[in-house]
Amino acid sequence: MATSVGRMQEKEPQFFAKLGHTTVHEGELARHSVYTRFLHWAYGIFFFLALFTGFATYMPFLFRWFAPAFGGPATTRMLHPWFGLGFVFFFGLQAINWWGPMKWTDTDSRWIKHLPEFLRSTQALEPEDVGMYNGGQKLQFWEIVVGSIVYLITGIVMWAGARTFGATSVAISYILHDISALIMLFGIFFHLYQATFGQPGTIQAMTRGTVSEAWAWTHAPAWFRQMTGRDPRQALEQERQRRIARERAIEQLARGGPAGPPGGGRA
């Protein structure tokens, strides 16, 4: 069965296959390859390097304590645009890598439309038509695409200065650059929360390249179906029945009675 993960990996540089591999254990699904994970951590590191040097350069009254870590104010100012270019370069490669899976669909429009209901709901499961990425994840991806373009254009204007582009263009670039940085920073913090506390098990996709099947049928049901050929809601019910059977067996053992057949309950 051709999968979105498989198609992405076919297009990736074979060089990265020699640097590492993704081990998929029982009860797990492969989600991100070595190449995808490398790009993710590369542009993440460059983003924060650009952020810290930018804070130290343009708001020294609050963040001048960042500057010594980069060799002083002058070095910090010199490094900032290069860190920014590093971020744009590596994210640009990731954008090419994710171009197919991140295309906007009617499913994503419905997801965004019903977002307030999802936030108020106690139901932890995503809608059954949510694929590898939901509408919120795609929205953040495209926000970063737009933000990266804004960074690149305004950064070049600011770097070249008023002699090349004029004082007005430089002033406007500073404003747009800062607004884009704040929007992206908010999104990154939300992303970090979702990857750790909001959706436990998510960060494993970018460390080991895998997620549990339970994570998949919970957060990406249509992708789970595509990868396994199984119904996500049925898989959830089967797991619930197995858990109930295990709990009953433990209770029986604690009472000194027969535990019953292993793996009881419905298959």
Which properties best describe this structure?
13 helices; Fumarate Reductase Cytochrome B subunit; two-stranded antiparallel ribbon; elongated; mainly alpha
**Tell me, what's the shape?**
elongated
CATH superfamily of the largest domain: Transmembrane di-heme cytochromes, Chain C
- Radius of gyration (Å): 23 Å
Report the end-to-end length measured between terminal Cα atoms. Answer: 24 Å
Percentage of residues in DSSP E strands: under 5%
Decide which structural class fits the backbone: mainly alpha
Which sheet architecture does the biggest sheet show?
2 strands, antiparallel
Number of separate domains: 2
Annotation, overall tally of beta strands: 2
Q: What is the N-to-C succession of helices and strands?
A: HEHHHHHHHHHEHHH
Please write the CATH class name of the largest domain: Mainly Alpha
Integer average pLDDT: 88
Strand order of the largest sheet: 1-2
> Architecture of the largest domain in CATH?
Up-down Bundle
Report the total helices: 13
Spans of 5+ residues with little confidence (pLDDT < 50)? none
Q: What name does CATH use for the topology of the largest domain?
A: Fumarate Reductase Cytochrome B subunit
